[in-house]
Amino acid sequence: MSEIRVASRYAKSLLELAEEKGALEVVHNDMQLFSNTCDNSRELKLMLRNPIINHDVKLKALRRLFSDKFHTITLSFFEILTKKQRENLLDVIAKEFHKQYNALMKIENALVTTPFELTEDLRASFRKAVEEISGKQVELKEKINPELIGGFVLQINDKQIDTSISSRLKELRVKFSENPYIKEF
Description:
Layout: H1 3-20, H2 24-40, H3 42-49, H4 55-66, H5 72-83, H6 90-105, E1 107-114, H7 120-134, E2 137-144, E3 153-156, E4 159-162, H8 165-178
Parallel strand pairs: 1-2
Antiparallel strand pairs: 1-3, 3-4
């Protein structure tokens, strides 16, 4: 079975348990913190995926890092996964948990790419526009790409709005290349 499918099942179980126990927000915050920690710590990821390191050692490391920060449900979940020798999937499970949480809470993911850092006003404008388009709350992620020159690219699931100058220049290049009177552009 693929890693994503297994992670999705574990994430669903954790989501349902957290919701049943009334700790959904806390567990979601725990999983977000864990995911961010993994994204920023290559060593933690490698340690969890290393088959040579004993599972008990991995559990001790997780406890030492997160026992004072995480809810008991999250810590118990980590213990269960470690006993089942599935700690290598924890990072993937955390990401899947976040996706399922967003689906449950009807939160839309959007990515805006600009050639510069967004101001609070622009961020609010993008968030409002996506909320109007999707009719859902928005989790807006930002990416900076100086090659866009100007404008923006907004992705909402499989939809994309591209108003970047670099994309307009590419369109012009294609139009000019199709013109038989212009040899080279």
